[in-house]
Amino acid sequence: MSDVVFSSSDLIQQLEKIPPEYIGKERFNRLIKICGKLALRAKDGNITGGQFQMACGPVFGRIDDICTQIDDEISKAEEEKKKILEREATSTSKQKPRKRKKSIQYNSLTTQMPDPLPVGLSLDRTPFFFMEYPHYVIQLGKDLEYEQVFAFDLERTVPFRHGTNSKVCLLQISTQNKDFVIDTLANGMKSAVTNYLKQAFENPQIIKIVHGNDDAKWLRTVFDIKIKNLFDTSTSRCNLQQLVYIACGIKLDKRYQTADWMRRPLSRDMVEYARLDTHYLINCWQYLMKTSRTSLSNYSVI
């Protein structure tokens, strides 16, 4: 009788080694229960070892057949997939590259200028600094003292959002090879601008470029900075978008013209928008000086 018990245990172990996904989990559990009951009956002497083998043998034979069949199907599927990938790779390599019409874009700004853009116009090749700590402003003030010209702009709150008491939220500055956006609402930044940028703004040897004289007035009101040697590009009698397009071939996106500049944190697009307000101004000033044009109001951005 001990031989019968050994045979039943051996068959159950074989069954448990078969992956359940081959025959279904529910059917797998039912087979284990059936074989378990047969093993107990064999142990109690109710059935002989031969009867047990006759009962379980066909079951295991059928399971082996199913496993073999599934393995074959999996192998065939893998071979077919491999052939399809090989055909696709061969087909792709034989195709001639399509000639695409080049739509010149640079930093998401459509331009009529040749690509790559000159260094003075290129955003990617111009270092950019977003400043929200006073110690950065200290170094900027020192650097501006060595510049011959720089452009600046302000972003303020708009009356319909925050009432008549407008606040200066950002100060943008561009030299001929760097762009800066200063968060004037950050802690300690208002006094830092007054103390460390005042000397550069009031230096008559340095040309300051702005589009719209209102920003110069706000610098005086908020930061006690009295600008000297100021060139206002708005005397060309066209808005900034028109001027940049005429002078640089760049179409500015003005979607954030009435944005809420008090919000913090500023989105990446808002910071980029603020940067662009001064990035091209020096080139616009050079264009106006070269062409000696005082009125461009008849030009329009297409």
From TrEMBL:
It holds the Pfam family DNA_pol_A_exo1. It comes from the Eukaryota. Signal peptide: none annotated. Residues 85-107 are annotated as: Disordered. GO terms for molecular function: 3'-5'-RNA exonuclease activity; single-stranded RNA binding. Residues 131-293 form the 3'-5' exonuclease domain. SMART domains: 35EXOc (SM00474). One of its GO terms (cellular component) is nuclear exosome (RNase complex). InterPro entries: 3'-5'_exonuclease_dom, RNaseH-like_sf, RNaseH_sf, Rrp6-like. GO terms for biological process: exonucleolytic trimming to generate mature 3'-end of 5.8S rRNA from tricistronic rRNA transcript (SSU-rRNA, 5.8S rRNA, LSU-rRNA); histone mRNA catabolic process; nuclear polyadenylation-dependent antisense transcript catabolic process; nuclear polyadenylation-dependent CUT catabolic process; nuclear polyadenylation-dependent rRNA catabolic process; nuclear polyadenylation-dependent snoRNA catabolic process; nuclear polyadenylation-dependent snRNA catabolic process; poly(A)-dependent snoRNA 3'-end processing. PANTHER family: EXOSOME COMPONENT 10 (PTHR12124:SF47), POLYMYOSITIS/SCLERODERMA AUTOANTIGEN-RELATED (PTHR12124). This is 3'-5' exonuclease domain-containing protein. The lineage of its organism: Eukaryota, Metazoa, Ecdysozoa, Nematoda, Chromadorea.
